[in-house]
Amino acid sequence: MRYYVLLLLFIFSLLSRFYLLNTVPPLFDAQIQILRLSSAVLNILSIFLLYIYVKKTLNNTKIALLSAWVMATLPWVLEQGRIYSYASNSLFFLLLFLLFWISLNNLLARFILLISFFITLYFSYPNLWIFKTMPVLDHPIIFINNLFNLLSPDNLFFRNFTFWWGGVKEVGVMYILLFPFLIFGLLEIINHRRYKLLYPCLFILFLSVVSPSFPESREFYFITPFLALTVAFGIYKLFLKGIQPLFILIFTALITYEIIQFFHYYYIHYPQDIISNKSNIKDPF
Amino acid sequence: MNKKWFYLLSAIILLASLLRLYDLGKTPLGLEWDEVALGYDAYSILKTGRDQFGSFLPLTFRSIDDYKPPLYEYVTVPSVALFDLNEFSTRLPSAFAGIITVILTALLVYQIVLSIPALRSNARKISLVSSLSLAISPWHLQFSRAAFEVNISVLITVLAVTSFLYGLKNKKLFLLSALFFGLNFFSYHSARVVSPLLMISLFLLFHKSLPIKKYILYFFIIWLTFFAGFIPILMSKDAQIRFSATNIFKPGARSLSDRDLETIFLEKRSQDNLAGFDMAGKIFHNQRLIYTDYESLRNAFSNYLSHFDFNFLFIKADAPLHHAPGFGLLYIVELPLILLGLIYILKKGLNRSSFFILLWIMFVPIPSSITKGAPHAVRTEIILPTFQILSGWGLILLINFLQKESKLFRDAGSALISIAFLINISFYLHQYYVHTNYEASSYWLHSRKEAVEATEKLKNQYDRVLISPRVEVPLDFWLFYTKYSPEKYLNEGGTISGGFADDRNHFDKYEFKYFDYNNLPKDQKILLVGTNNSLPNDFPGLANIIKTIYNRDGTNALLFAENRH
Q1: Which of A158, A235, B108, B559 is found 20 to 30 A from B418 (Cα to Cα)?
Q2: In this complex, do B311 and A264 lie within 8 Å of one another by their Cβ atoms?
Q3: Whole-number Å distance between alpha carbons of B74 and B418
Q4: In terms of DSSP bridges, do strands B510-512 and B464-467 run parallel, antiparallel, or are they unpaired?
Q5: Tell me, what's the ipTM?
Q6: pLDDT digit of tens for each residue in chain A (285 aa)?
Q7: Domain residue extents for chain B
């Protein structure tokens, strides 16, 4: 059964990443074409890496499948998978690193892995601020403010600060319908003391909050697999453990509508918005 | 209730009274336009039984054309009768309601905590901490020290819920809660939605503990009596004006910068047509489905969640009138306590009482989320004292945790928490009591009082006094500060319209109308009051300016000029 689901996910990912790849978003530099292709491939691989990572960590195939499904459909992940994006490519290496990390028990091996990861990150994401400059941290209140700003519902569901690098203005990081599952998943993770699952988030959040380019912290993109995992936890606990099939049906209908609406905005409105703002785009994607 | 609890609560009440009554008429300095309208209507009711429009004991006050619920006006009547018409008497009902709410919070929390086994032994402590937290709350203090109807609504809501919970064992209190739930229809707009939701939740959650059916019947008879009084308001076109002017689906003209959904839809539809996807446009951007449209609902949900935004709650709130300069609505030190209280309740203390508190928090932003200007501190003040209850739980849990630790750790932890609270609270009090009158003086419109006093001194030297409507809602300021006799005013015709741009109102020598400085009659001596802060300016560069009134922050507020005669 899980292989059918994985196959379906693969087909969905393939179609959603490669369909009209060279025209949506409009391509302003022909050299980017091949880079978009590599981004799409790494993006699809990241989805399956997440599946393996969650399966190995939780030993639960259903949550792993759900995480991969959420990751594959998240608007932000989809948008970044269709452009030349350092953040999206580096996410693949981050997930690979995490997978090796949980497989290794030897301290020295882990240390070497960590060094290797940072070296890889240096090459895959040369613009990452930690390799170039110092963090911006004037006041502790600003730190907390930035943190809540990034995690605000506005940022997660309604506003997209990535318009200038591949994002649809009207849709945030994830679909609104996933909101209750995100909250429930978070509570479940706390309840079951699975804090370890979210440890990498602390590092990612710190990286994003003190980023010199805040509020446009591209590093925040690294949080997406963990958001997918948390939502999957929520869906698993709410739906697959005792909720009426009617709710599942309603949820499926609504999420399908939301995904279709996102594609509508992405394939019809976004290219027109981008073309009318062409003169303001500094770096082609 | 033991003696120690009683003495401590008395000390909290004393503190709450001090913080609410000290310098009440002077901080914030000056009344804003809703306050003067409320005050003058109360004065008019006291003297004539009619509001400034001449309506006899109205159930909706037209006021500045925003059709206010009537409760605040009526409770201000005794205050104006006792202390005359001034800033203090207009704000006193709000301050008084604030003090009573602090007392009731202690009783409410005590009853709720008693029903949570994990916290029961700390019921008295938690009730005191929550009450204290409300007594010093920036959010509650802000609206207890100004004439905001919502502060009365907070009191009525807490009264209704407290009497309902105590009423489960006392039938008289149970019936009293029906009276308060009913009265809330007349206290504030958002309470008209939230209060019935809270009442229904209480009935559903406590249906097994309700008194016998006879009392439930009496309860609904009382409540329905009030509801029957509310129906004409609900159905009237005039009262619905406020909703149509503020709802996000059909934005009114007040905020011209807002792009309404219909315009957005039309833009998107034309993009769809251009791309050859007419049908998709009909599905996703259909203005006929504006109330059920996904985009509209998304906006509403975004507004809803914005009320829990960190920036809104802890850093800068919303409009300058709604918070102390440089301060949010809650203390930032409360944040970890609120989260701690919330997590603890969800994990170990979730029962019908604590679940009701969570529902209370969830219901309050609903009306505000379908209106423009969200998040809105006034429309959601009835969320109080839920945050204080959560922080009270959090603080006691933290103290209990520290008490189990070593002495050094305990003392260091307690010292750290106390210092953090002291710094945060004293900074707030400094910002509010010192800086409000300077940094927010232009918003609290103190300049209007000075202008009225000046025109009263000067008016005898002139044939007419023209006041520009660009001096935002000038009529009520001049009526209020001149204490113009309501009998005389109504005999002269009363208010024609309270709208921002209306230029038909007049009394005594005062006429509230637009003027063209270069085309004024030269055979009369006219005093002009206007402003050059809003476009178009009232006065050209060569106008004969005779006086300038400044805000406390040094900015230019109002200008006085003479015509060329």
Answers
A1: B108
A2: no
A3: 42
A4: parallel
A5: 0.72
A6: 889 999 999 999 999 999 999 898 998 888 888 999 999 999 999 999 999 999 999 999 999 999 999 999 999 999 999 999 999 999 999 999 999 999 998 999 999 999 999 999 999 999 898 998 877 777 777 888 888 888 888 888 887 778 888 888 888 899 989 999 999 899 888 888 888 888 899 999 999 999 888 888 889 999 999 999 999 999 998 876 666 788 888 989 999 989 998 999 999 999 998 888 888 877 778
A7: 3-30+86-246+301-438, 255-293, 447-562
Query: Do the chains contact at A268 and B310, CB–CB below 8 Å?
Result: no
A23 touches chain B (CB under 8 A): no
CB contact under 8 Å between B311 and A144, yes or no, is no
pTM, full prediction: 0.85
CB under 8 Å to A210, separation ≥6 — which residues? A135, A136, A137, A143, A146
How far is the C-alpha of B142 from the C-alpha of B28, rounded, in Å? 9
Report how far residue B237's alpha carbon sits from residue B184's, in angstroms, rounded to the nearest whole number.
Answer: 21
Cβ of A153 within 8 Å of Cβ of B311? The answer is: no
Determine the distance in angstroms separating the CA of A48 from the nearest CA of chain B, rounded to an integer: 31
Residue of A269, A274, A276, A277 to mutate for B, most B C-beta atoms under 10 A:
A269
C-alpha angle B356-B357-B363 in degrees, rounded to nearest 5: 85
Using CB atoms, pick whichever of B306, B311, B346 lies closest to residue A148.
B311
**Phi, psi at B465, each rounded to 5°:** -125, 115
Coil, helix or strand at residue A127: coil
Distance of CA A280 to the CA centre of its chain: 26
Cα→Cα distances A155→A174, A233, B376, Å? 9, 21, 19
Assess contact for B134 and B384: CB atoms under 8 A. Answer: yes
Nearest to A268 among B272, B309, B310 (CB): B272
B329 with B379: CB under 8 angstroms?
A: no
Minimal CA–CA distance to B86: which of B488, B482, B544, B364? Answer: B482
Q: Count CA within 13 A, CB hemisphere, residue B363.
A: 23
Question: Of B156, B237, B167, which is closest to residue B196 (Cα–Cα)?
Answer: B156
- Please give the single-letter amino acid code of residue A255: I
Cβ distance B310 to A149 less than 8 Å, yes or no, reads yes
Distance from C-alpha of B185 to C-alpha of B357, rounded to nearest angstrom = 21
